[in-house]
Amino acid sequence: MNDTPETSRNSSTALEQLRQLIQQQEHTPDRALPTERELAERFGIGRREIRRALDVLEEEGRIWRKQGKGTFVGPSAPVQPLVLQDLPQQSNLLEVMEARLQLEPGLASLAALRATKEQIALMKRLLERMHAITPPEDGDQHELWDSAFHRAIAEAAGNRLMLGLFDAVDAVRRDPGWQHLRVQARTPARLDNYDTHHQRLVMHIAQRQPHEAAAAMREHLLALQQALMETLYSRQEEAP
C-alpha cells in the first residue's frame, strides 16, 4: 500500500488505532490479529507505520508474534484509559505544553512510588529503542518511541483518570498539523539533552525518588516548551 497524505498519518496514529483494536479483541486472545496488509488497508495507514506500532506493542507486552501463525493479544490486556472526546480539535501545541507541565511531573512522582520492576524495565527498553533509531533524523520514530516512553511513566503511576488525561493531551500533541513545527524544534543537541533528561527520569523512578522524578520531568518539559516557542517565533519572523 502506498503512503499518501490522504491514506497515511504516522506511526503514532497506527499505535492509537491498534490499542483500540486490542481492547476489542482482548476477550479472544487465541484469535490472531489481522495481517499487516489488512491493518494498513483497514486504518488507511502505511505498512511501515503499522510495523513500527506493532513493535511498540510487542515491547510493552501487549502482543506476541509467532512465525507462520500471526500476531496475538497478550500476555495481559492493556490498562484502558478513559476517553476524552474532541480535545484535539479544541486546543493547540502551546496549551499542550502547559497541560503537560501540570500533569506529567505528578505522574512521574507517582510512578516513582508505584512502578513495578517490569514497568521500569519497559522504560529502559523504550529508551534503548530511541537510541537505536536509524536514521537519527527519523522524526516519525522519535515521536513514536518518545510518546511510548512517556505513556509508560503515565501507566506506571497507576491512576486511570490521570492516564486518560495523559492520552487526551498526547492526542493533541500528535496532531499532524503541528508535525512540521515539532520536526523543526528537534535538533541533535536538543535530542542529546532530552536523552539525559530521560535517563535521569528512569533513574529517579527506579530509586523510588518521587520529588526528584517530578523535578526531572518538569525540567525536561520546560526544555521542550522553550524549544517549541523558539521555533514557532522563528517561523513567524520568517513569514512574509
TrEMBL record:
InterPro entries: GntR_C, TF_FadR/GntR_C, Tscrpt_reg_HTH_GntR, WH-like_DNA-bd_sf, WH_DNA-bd_sf. It comes from the Bacteria. Pfam families: FCD, GntR. SMART domains: FCD (SM00895), HTH_GNTR (SM00345). Keywords: DNA-binding, Transcription, Transcription regulation. Residues 8-76 form the HTH gntR-type domain. Transmembrane segments: none annotated. PROSITE patterns: HTH_GNTR. This is FadR family transcriptional regulator. It comes from Pantoea endophytica.
